[in-house]
Amino acid sequence: MTDLERSASAGDGHTDLDVAHPESQYPVADPGHPEHLPRLTDVDEKAADRATRQVATMFGIVPVLAIGFAVAYFALPRTMYIDFGFLHVNLQHVLLGTTAGLALLLIGIGAVQWARQLMDDHEMVDYRHSATSDAADREYVVRELQKGTEESKITRRKVLGRSLIGALAAMGIPLIVSFADLGPWPTKKRRAATIETTIWHEGVRLVNDITYVPIKASDLEIGQLVNGQPENLKELEGTEFQQARAKSSIIVVRMDPRTIRVPASRQDWQVGGILCYSKICTHVGCPISLWEQQTHHLLCPCHQSTFDLGNSGLVIFGPAARSLPQLPITTDAEGYLVARSGFTVPVGPSYFERDSRHDFKEGDN
Amino acid sequence: MGALSTLLAPQQQSSADTGTSQQVTQGKGLFAVQCASCHGLNGEGQVTSTIQGPPLAGVGAASVEFQVGTGRMPLSKSEVQAPVHAVRFSESEIAALAAYVATLGPGPAIPNPSQYDTAGVSQEDVARGGELFRTNCSACHNYEGGGGALPGGKYAPSLKGTSNVHIYEAMVTGPQQMPVFNDDVLRPEDKKAIIAYLNDLHSRPNQGGLDLGGLGPVSEGLWAWIVGIGGLVIFAVWIASKGVKAK
Fold first, then answer.
1. pLDDT confidence of residue B217
2. pLDDT (tens digit, 9 = 90+) per residue, B196-224?
3. Is residue A225 within 8 Å of B181, Cβ to Cβ?
4. Which of A69, A250, A348, B116 gets the highest tally of CB atoms within 10 A of its CB?
């Protein structure tokens, strides 16, 4: 009798139950386990002693480390710092981490080494049995259920059961009604009033984000970048402010007009090489302001979509599918930059109903 | 760094504001020897020959003080971006070079110490500086100024340890790929608030042990995937491996 057979029929109390998947189901016969070979520690007593010493040493270091942890916790001043090369770290934190971490690691390694070298390593087979309860148990449960139904009088007084079902079903109404808060339904009219519009309109001044300092066209140098907002954002507060800001953020850049391409239809959208774009990536809506002033490329930090601001915001790399919306700008009587109109296309990421026919495409003029 | 800039500040100021003709002459001599091979004898730039350098008319004294004062210039070889090296000139030589280049065309002057000295900046201004930093700078330089990667091997350098005056100069001159943030738009008090925020941020004790450069998901991901998961894989292989057999 092999070890495997012995363990399988060792009388664990389940051998008389059905086996869930008898071997005969498999098209290829079970090759069985490889021959069991004794380990070095099984035949050589010295090797076993050595392994025992290793494990005991690892476990033996743990109390030392644990005491070290306590000493580091109480004895060290909390403001002592230590420098490892370029790292400037709190000595106590380093010691607490090292002692506790090393102690846990030693317990783990010791346990694994114990299991690998010293614990009995005979292969065992434990068959997966059918999960069904036996017939007597099943009969008992059915009998109890029937008894319970009888005692509840529900079979005789049927109105009880029916009214209960009605009550539970009615509780679905509050559930379904609260789904209305997922809305309102994005009809065409509602989209036009919300996600497809911003607070930009004709004559709104371009101002610096945070400081609201208006931007004078003559103050901008070639290579300048301004993270901006519409001046009327200042009037909003709370949720309204956040929602408006999420859509109206812009970047204003000035480039040498000789080095950029401005299509005929957008000649009057810019002021001497000063161009204004939406700051919201057309991929999934991250704010972008990583602009390389020499290449005119604007890179989105989230997924590396790259837009060419020297060429109407066309996508030159990455997952964004649409060019960055440009805001038509001009100057007012005092020389400050103002919007000529709102954005001509919806800003921000794509959504199913978005009409993308009016976005600027390669080759448009 | 702060002490260094305060120490050197009066000299820089005098060179920027009242560059004497003697200083300009000294600067011109230095320029001819050290800079002219790329930037041309009169700073007109070389854009067609094999050795290229941009024209310097109008870059201003601040640009020279930044590029030479941080050791970015002179450039030893053509690269995608000028890296920081040891500074090769003395303070007076840099001042002379800056004074000479400033005569080539009007450009940003070296800022006055009162513009970047952050002593006495209020906590409100530090907080406002943080807001401005996150709006205008963090896209490239990371939320705590740890720096970050740009396309094509270029990078936004870390701002840790950069002196106040150099941060100010970088904002007004826009070195390399960095956009310009001049004083008319990002006002001097805004710049001072940003510098104060960075100094405040970088002087805080690091209680968390290793901050992995503060680079966020890049360095943390690298650590978790390679060191963390790699270590777990090695352990799993060791646990499941068959040890030495007697036969």
1. 75
2. 999 998 888 766 666 776 777 778 888 89
3. yes
4. A250
Distance CA A341, CA A324 (A): 16
Distance CA A150, CA A341 (A): 77
Kindly state which CATH superfamily the domain B2-102 is placed in: Cytochrome c-like domain (1.10.760.10)
Distance from CA of B140 to the nearest CA of A (A): 6
> From CA A56, how far away is CA A50, in angstroms rounded?
10
Residue type, B91: E
CA angle A131, A132, A134 (to 5 degrees): 130
Do A53 and A147 belong to one domain?
no
Amino acid (1-letter code) at residue A56: A
CA B66 from chain centre, in angstroms, equals 8
Same domain, A218 and A328: yes
Tell me which chain B residues have a C-beta less than 8 angstroms from the C-beta of A97.
Answer: 209
pLDDT at residue B131 is higher than 50: yes
- A226 and chain B: CB distance < 8 Å anywhere? yes
Angle at which helices A91-117 and A45-75 cross, to 10° = 160
List of residues 6+ apart from B138 with CB closer than 8 A: none
Residue A286: which domain range? 197-339
Angle between helices B91-102 and B21-34 (to 10 degrees): 100
Q: Please tell me whether residues A27 and A76 are part of one structural domain.
A: yes
CA distances for A153 relative to A34, A149, B91, angstroms? 63, 7, 101
Report CA Rg, chain A: 37
Asked if B190 and A211 come within 8 Å (Cβ–Cβ), the reply is yes
Check CB contact under 8 Å for A44 and B205.
no
- A7, A8, A9, A10 alpha-carbon torsion, rounded to 10°: 30
Chains A, B: CB contacts within 8 A come to: 110
How many C-beta atoms surround the C-beta of residue A76 within 10 A? 15
CA separation for the pair A295, B120 (Å, rounded): 39
Task: List, for residues A316-328, the tens digit of each pLDDT value.
Answer: 999 999 999 999 9
Question: Who's near A76: CB < 8 A, 6+ residues apart?
Answer: A91, A92, A95
State how far the Cα of B219 lies from the Cα of B147, in Å rounded to an integer. 12
